[in-house]
Amino acid sequence: MKLSPNTRILLGGAIGLLAVFGLCIAILLSFDWNRAKPWLNQRVSDATGRPFAIHGDLGLRWGHPAAAKDGRRGWIPWPHLLAQNVKIGNPEWAREDNMAEITQLALSLDPVSLLSKKIAIPVLQLDAPNVTLERSADGRNNWTFAPQKPSAWQIEVDQVVLNKATVHFVDAIKHAD
Hints:
Largest sheet: 7 strands, mixed
Structural class: alpha/beta
């Protein structure tokens, strides 16, 4: 069976697109995400106005969400991020260097929401976090983040799960420790 030139062009284009798509998937699945840590650390630091660092391994896997909001979102695989030994710094006035030290952080991102500049995280899981919440005598607190510049992006976290958490609360106004 002989194919017409138009059919050959369409078939070649379709095969080319499939090859590019397959290559992109292969790169995403085999990429060493630890190489992205400096970029990610800087972006989170800029967004929060605080030092942020992932000192351990950073991994990303793709899978379907446990409970998608509607049926269509379940068709698209979601990225599941896992980070070890995460530290979030404190403002200069705080007594401790870090506001939080987290043994393991796990989250999933809704990829469809990224198209509208929204980071939608259905569940943020923190394993063995050590968190210090502090309020100074002049009313400043370390749980309110002041980014260096406004962002067009929004973040939405539906649920936070703390496993084996330690929370230290220091309030200079109420003399609580």
